[in-house]
């Protein structure tokens, strides 16, 4: 009979116990398989194991059924049967400490980022800009940085772009060519974000990355669940959020070298969305991020239906693999099965490609790095059942968990406070004095003062209109 040890997470049984070594958990991994093959349960088992060992977890919940990890499981005949067949020594039921997050602020704490922190590369990805438009956006970020202009939300960016359009000729001589049509095209793309409710993502208070790495009073790692059922309908917003979180973790966390266990494990569901339609520059950034973030103690696990959705240069960095069943009705599906089989170290007693087609629900081919950091021969494995509830948590229970969260109330603030703070900008000198000042000062300083004056006037009108209403 098998169970976790101080250094492993017991995941299932093949010809031997299949356990993930914590010291190699930051070597990244993948969980692949067709819909209904058992990917979510495998993710749940791993997340529970990390939490038990004091490792915080972040996972996107694109179907809503991962939220049950916050509830204690209930004994059922098929679960008890699975536990026995998997050789689980003691099968008990337990909820995991959970924090819910939601960009839209409906099913969890809001996640926000000032646009200035997102950076031009990720924002260009979100807006689906071409190379020329991305160049103009990069100039906008540079102007905001040099002139210390506010760049917190979409309103700030729109004001900056409007002023760039008004002064396009002058700014081109200083920063490089920009045209009014290019600026206008970016402004039009911003309207698409309004339809996606992306304005809820941009602003303050910004997420403190340390809040994704909390532990309970009992020393268990919190499992951070991103409610993504609605978010996944906007693939660019979803992928931009995931990449921003990973980038923020990499930039903030110190180098730690080899650890006994990760500082954080990050599960990326629907991972293909990170790579589909992504520019060459951003793909290189993702590859680099995957390679380097392990030195910060972070493990990334890409979850996807089709293993060929993950580019080779990223896939080659994934040391721990779980492959659930696939179907091969089309040529592309047949290629996926072949590609999946080739990622494993061959087992002389197993036809890997055939096994992928025959795997039942809850079965998987498993290959976890061994003591010397090398992959073993792949094994057909029965995955153990989780101790938390399989399926979605009720709305009432979710609200209760959110209200009792250690972060309750911290990120729900915003909106009015942002307007009030920005409304404190000085209005600046009158027009006559401004003309004299422009003749003496640099164009950049004059631009900054002009921007702030129009900004303050607009905010003032909003406040006055609000008071009249």
Summarize the structure.
With 469 residues, the protein is of the alpha/beta class. The chain is 42% helix and 12% strand.
Q: Which features does this protein show?
A:
469 residues, alpha/beta, Rossmann fold, eleven-stranded mixed sheet, 18 helices, 11 strands, 42% helix, disordered C terminus
Write up this protein:
- The protein is an alpha/beta fold.
- The protein folds into 2 domains: 8-112 and 204-403, Rossmann fold, CATH 3.40.50.300; 423-469, no CATH class.
- It contains 18 helices and 11 strands.
- The chain has an 11-stranded mixed sheet with strand order 2-1-11-10-9-3-8-7-4-6-5.
- A hairpin with a 3-residue loop joins strand 1 and strand 2.
- Helix 4 (120-127) packs across helix 5 (131-146) and helix 4 runs antiparallel to helix 9.
- The model is unreliable at 415-444 and 454-469 (pLDDT under 50).
Question: Which outline best applies?
Answer: globular
- Count of the domains: 2
Number of strands: 11
CATH class of the largest domain: Alpha Beta
Low-pLDDT stretches are 415-444, 454-469
CATH architecture of the largest domain: 3-Layer(aba) Sandwich
* CATH superfamily grouping of the largest domain: P-loop containing nucleotide triphosphate hydrolases
Helix content: 40-55%
Average pLDDT, all residues: 88
Query: Count of helical segments?
Result: 18
Q: Based on helices, strands and strand pairing, what is the structural class? A: alpha/beta
% residues in beta strands:
5-15%
| Largest beta-sheet details | 11 strands, mixed
Assign the CATH topology of the largest domain: Rossmann fold
Q: How big is the Rg? A: 25 Å
Helix and strand pattern: EEEHEHEHHHHHHEHEHHEHEHHEEHHHH
Tell me the distance between the termini.
69 Å
């Amino acid at each position: 009979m098998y169970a976790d040890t101080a250094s492993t997470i017991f995941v299932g049984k093949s010809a031997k116990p299949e356990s993930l070594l914590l010291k190699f958990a930051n070597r990244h991994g993948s969980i692949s398989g067709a819909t209904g093959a058992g990917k979510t349960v495998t993710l749940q088992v791993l997340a529970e194991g990390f939490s038990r060992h004091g490792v915080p977890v972040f996972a996107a919940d694109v179907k809503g059924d991962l939220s049950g990890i916050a509830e204690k499981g209930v004994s059922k005949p098929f679960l008890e049967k699975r536990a026995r067949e998997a050789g689980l020594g003691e099968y008990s039921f337990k909820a995991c400490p959970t924090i819910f997050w939601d960009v839209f602020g409906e099913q969890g704490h809001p996640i926000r980022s000032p646009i200035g922190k997102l950076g031009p590369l990720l924002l260009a990805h979100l807006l689906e800009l071409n190379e020329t438009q991305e160049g103009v956006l990069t100039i906008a970020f540079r102007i905001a940085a040099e002139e210390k202009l506010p760049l917190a939300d979409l309103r700030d960016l729109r004001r900056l772009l409007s002023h760039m359009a008004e002064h396009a000729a002058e700014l081109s001589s200083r920063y490089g060519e920009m045209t009014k049509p290019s600026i206008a095209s970016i402004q039009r793309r911003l309207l698409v974000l309004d339809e996606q409710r992306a304005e809820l993502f941009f602003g303050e208070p910004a997420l403190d990355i340390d809040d994704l790495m909390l532990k309970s009073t009992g020393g268990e790692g919190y499992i951070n669940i991103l409610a993504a059922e609605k978010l996944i309908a906007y693939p660019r917003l979803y992928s931009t959020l995931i990449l921003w979180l990973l980038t923020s973790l990499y930039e903030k966390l110190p180098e730690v070298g080899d650890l006994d266990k990760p500082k954080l494990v990050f599960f990326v569901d629907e991972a293909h969305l990170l790579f589909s339609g992504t520019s060459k520059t951003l793909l290189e950034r993702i590859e680099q991020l995957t390679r380097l973030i392990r030195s910060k103690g972070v493990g990334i696990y890409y979850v996807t239906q089709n293993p060929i959705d993950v580019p080779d240069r990223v896939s080659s960095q994934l040391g721990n693999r779980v492959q659930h069943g696939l179907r091969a009705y089309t040529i592309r599906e047949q290629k996926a099965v072949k590609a999946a089989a080739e990622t494993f170290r061959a087992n002389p007693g197993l036809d890997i490609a055939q096994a992928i087609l025959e795997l039942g629900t809850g079965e998987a081919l498993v290959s976890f790095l061994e003591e010397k950091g090398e992959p073993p021969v792949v094994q057909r494995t029965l995955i153990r059942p989780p101790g938390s509830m399989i399926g979605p948590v009720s709305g009432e229970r979710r609200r209760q968990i959110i209200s009792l969260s250690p972060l309750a109330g911290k990120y729900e603030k915003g909106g009015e406070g942002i307007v009030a703070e920005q409304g404190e900008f000085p209005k600046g000198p009158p027009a006559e004095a401004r003309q004299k000042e422009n003749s003496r000062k640099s164009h950049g300083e004059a631009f900054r003062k002009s921007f702030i004056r129009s900004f303050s006037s607009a905010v003032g009108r909003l406040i006055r209109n609000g008071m009249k209403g």
